[in-house]
């Protein structure tokens, strides 16, 4: 029997790639816009707004997809709104059965009403703490720098400053074409000297050179998306595969791929779930993880992403557990804490679901 959406919701899941400003509740956006006097929302009806985000994000272009964030970032400019959005994020993920999440956002985008970078981070950390309290979820924060801006070193320093307060790593995001990872080499070298962890959005809207730079120049621990690694794998008529040097390196080094299937369809990185490179990469035993990217823009949840993969590839509980353990192994948490979650929460949780009549 293949796993149903309801059953998947009850399984303990791990989410490594989820944007705070891409996961707001539509009702919350409308309320925050009203309270703050934000006038530019396309509609004030939550149902229409939810649909607007999904449709506007479905253009086949990452650049157009990113334009929709103006409306979520626009209502996240005060301590209260940031803390509320973060608390609701933790609540929503816990309700979906996520037991460990790393949620990212770009502090530099939340200072237009006068908050300092430190105040922004503190508000979000407080929100995650509040939303997680009493629930079976732990949330780590990743600080993102926008790749078209020039504040990555500053944001990297911010991440290190809050490393003992809930920030577990760093990331760069935004339009990929024209903004290669090496533009931010200074930030990555600083983080390496500080023994800090980081992931890089790479191989989503640009190909192998972006992935190569992220790994071989910048030293990324993980790849955000990384779907274009497929360009370095040739598949012959009889189904045989041959890995190029970069693809072999990524697999040999067990570099985690934070794959986000639905988001990739919307930005044109893949044509359909069934044709998504995740199928081949899983078969070839790359360290694949499954993620949401932006739950609002993609109208999705981690459970729904898994359910779509079950439908397209016929995955069973062992596959879903494999993706989940991969994600937990790849988290930016200390080794002993990762192990405790794998052995104490993930494996028993999947065993219970697998064996219940
Ligand atoms: O999939 C993505 N690729 C590149 N950038 C992205 C993606 N999803 C969200 N972002 C951007 C828009 C957000 O404002 C920013 C920080 O979360 O990250
Ligand atoms: Zn992303």
Automatic annotation (TrEMBL):
<dbReference type="GO" id="GO:0006154">
    <property type="term" value="P:adenosine catabolic process"/>
</dbReference>
<dbReference type="GO" id="GO:0046103">
    <property type="term" value="P:inosine biosynthetic process"/>
</dbReference>
<dbReference type="GO" id="GO:0043103">
    <property type="term" value="P:hypoxanthine salvage"/>
</dbReference>
<feature type="binding site">
    <location>
        <position position="293"/>
    </location>
    <ligand>
        <name>Zn(2+)</name>
    </ligand>
</feature>
<keyword id="KW-0378">Hydrolase</keyword>
<keyword id="KW-0546">Nucleotide metabolism</keyword>
<dbReference type="GO" id="GO:0046936">
    <property type="term" value="F:2'-deoxyadenosine deaminase activity"/>
</dbReference>
<feature type="active site" description="Proton donor">
    <location>
        <position position="204"/>
    </location>
</feature>
<dbReference type="InterPro" id="IPR001365">
    <property type="entry name" value="A_deaminase_dom"/>
</dbReference>
<feature type="binding site">
    <location>
        <position position="19"/>
    </location>
    <ligand>
        <name>substrate</name>
    </ligand>
</feature>
<dbReference type="InterPro" id="IPR028893">
    <property type="entry name" value="A_deaminase"/>
</dbReference>
<feature type="binding site">
    <location>
        <position position="17"/>
    </location>
    <ligand>
        <name>Zn(2+)</name>
    </ligand>
</feature>
<feature type="site" description="Important for catalytic activity">
    <location>
        <position position="225"/>
    </location>
</feature>
<dbReference type="GO" id="GO:0004000">
    <property type="term" value="F:adenosine deaminase activity"/>
</dbReference>
<feature type="binding site">
    <location>
        <position position="19"/>
    </location>
    <ligand>
        <name>Zn(2+)</name>
    </ligand>
</feature>
<dbReference type="GO" id="GO:0009117">
    <property type="term" value="P:nucleotide metabolic process"/>
</dbReference>
<feature type="binding site">
    <location>
        <position position="21"/>
    </location>
    <ligand>
        <name>substrate</name>
    </ligand>
</feature>
<comment type="function">
    <text>Catalyzes the hydrolytic deamination of adenosine and 2-deoxyadenosine.</text>
</comment>
<dbReference type="InterPro" id="IPR032466">
    <property type="entry name" value="Metal_Hydrolase"/>
</dbReference>
<dbReference type="GO" id="GO:0008270">
    <property type="term" value="F:zinc ion binding"/>
</dbReference>
<comment type="similarity">
    <text>Belongs to the metallo-dependent hydrolases superfamily. Adenosine and AMP deaminases family. Adenosine deaminase subfamily.</text>
</comment>
<protein>
    <recommendedName>
        <fullName>Adenosine deaminase</fullName>
        <ecNumber>3.5.4.4</ecNumber>
    </recommendedName>
</protein>
<feature type="binding site">
    <location>
        <position position="201"/>
    </location>
    <ligand>
        <name>Zn(2+)</name>
    </ligand>
</feature>
<dbReference type="GO" id="GO:0009168">
    <property type="term" value="P:purine ribonucleoside monophosphate biosynthetic process"/>
</dbReference>
<feature type="binding site">
    <location>
        <position position="174"/>
    </location>
    <ligand>
        <name>substrate</name>
    </ligand>
</feature>
<keyword id="KW-0862">Zinc</keyword>
<dbReference type="InterPro" id="IPR006330">
    <property type="entry name" value="Ado/ade_deaminase"/>
</dbReference>
<dbReference type="GO" id="GO:0005829">
    <property type="term" value="C:cytosol"/>
</dbReference>
<feature type="domain" description="Adenosine deaminase">
    <location>
        <begin position="12"/>
        <end position="347"/>
    </location>
</feature>
<dbReference type="Pfam" id="PF00962">
    <property type="entry name" value="A_deaminase"/>
</dbReference>
<keyword id="KW-0479">Metal-binding</keyword>
